[in-house]
Amino acid sequence: MTHRIDFILFTLYLILNITLGIWVARRRAADTRGYFLAGEGLPWYAIGGSIIAANISTEHFIGMIGIAYAVGFVVAQWEWGNWLTFSALIWIFLPFYIRGGLFTMPEFLERRYNATCRYLFAVCSLVLWIVAQMAVVMLAGGKAMHGMFGWNETVTIVGLAVLAGSYTIYGGLVSVAWTDFLQFVVMMLGGLIVTVVGLHEVGGLRDLMLDAPEKFKFIYPATDPEFPWFGVWTLAISVGIWYNCTNQFIVQRCLGARSEWDARMGVVFAGFMKIVLPLLVVIPGIVAFRLYPGLEDPDQAFPTLVRNLVPLGLSGIVMAGLASGMLSHISSVLNSCSTVFTMDLYKPVLGRHRSERHLVLVGRLSAFVILVIATLLAIWFSRRNLGVFILIQDIGAWVAAPIAAVFLLGVLWKRTTAWAATFVLLFAFPYTALMQYYLSVYVHWLMPFRNFLNRTFLVWIVSMLLLVLLSLVTKPPDPEKIKGIIWSWRVARLPESERARNRGLRNLFLWWCIFIGIMAVLYAYVIWFQFWGPGAAAP
């Protein structure tokens, strides 16, 4: 059970979080750019912290730690693998998004292709976010609080919805971004406490690696049913591009940047944080395996650590850190859902001549309705025994690859046509489902590809081929329409007006190179540990 001081700390944090969200929004929510894009005034550190806070949730503290408990360090590749897609966002996609003055990712598809692509992507995104990002995160939050503190799952789910909605619906992106930054700090602190306490209990990281070397495998055979190396390593160019480069709730805080330099440097900052994250969301899972082997539900690894190891007074900070992960993710997705609904579905159809104030009101009302739907879905999910992390990944994998293909070829190949993109987006779900059924039932010689990671890459390849073939047999796009949207090396350079601040220690390319260099060293070490170091003798 939790002591009174822990509840006091937790309550004070919640009050501070809500107060901050309402306070920062008092002058920014008057028009659509103020409400949906924070008045385009976010600095790089707020963007980077908000990206991480939006990205991390109970999906990580419960689901990823649960997978680390069951399988091991291989799940760290979900974080470290972002080096590629973060780089693509910095050097390929963001210049188009920022310079285009966009509100949403579906809006980009209309500029590159047609309105049909915009509507298809908007509807698909809303459904996916509500189910896989909001409802499932609320579910995980309910499970976590029940496991650690005995709280009722349904009450917890409703409480999370009310807390996240209280400032998100009122303030929009500016409230989301700055509360995200606070939540990022608290979340990192809470995760660090659990990691430090856990490592102290097992004698430190080195002893843990030597005692359980089998849990520090980084590469699994191609035939592994859960984490085949081929599927894991290709995840970045399928699901990764969709999640980091085309995903509204990740990219939106970049669209709210005060400059293009701030937007791109914010992603670099988020990349450095991704390096650290496995220490907070993977190592605790292996610690829990070392201390408490035989847990029936791996998703209870984190709650078990907190309940048994975290001392009085620090539990409140851990509670706040876990709540931060939940609230930041829910508020970020909620804000993105309302933005997409208002700007991509409502405004083009019913709100062309409506005032800015009216559109902000629609954004708030749609956010409320979406929050109610997600809450009811989460309560329904809570009645079933679902693996949180795998559930989220599997749902996303259904449509991620076709979307990634449409965006990537759209900026890299001028010949990609609107007709081809429309076809791929329209039939993304059907042919993904067909491939899953066909591979699972009939194609036994393709056994490795029956894993959803390998399947996703295969769907990505099929999507790319369809785009190329259909583009070659349909009318080329109008050169005037795609002017300024096709990538070249010149696009990667900052605008002339911002190059003066991009010098010395503020040089964007310098910090990106440091980020990539650190990642290369870490990859080299974990591979050495598995194949030539102490892990080589592990079963």
- The counted number of beta strands is 0
| Major β-sheet profile | none
Query: Could you tell me the mean pLDDT?
Result: 86
End-to-end Cα distance = 38 Å
Query: Which fold name is given in CATH as the topology?
Result: Sodium/glucose cotransporter
Classified in CATH, the superfamily is Sodium/glucose cotransporter
Helix-strand pattern: HHHHHHHHHHHHHHHHHHHHHHHHHH
User: Helix fraction?
Assistant: over 70%
> So what's the CATH class?
Mainly Alpha
The whole-angstrom Rg is: 23 Å
Shape: globular
Q: What is the structural class?
A: mainly alpha
How many domains? The number is: 1
pLDDT below 50 for ≥5 consecutive residues: which ranges?
none
| Range of strand content | under 5%
Count of helical segments?
A: 26
- Please tell me the CATH architecture by its name: Up-down Bundle
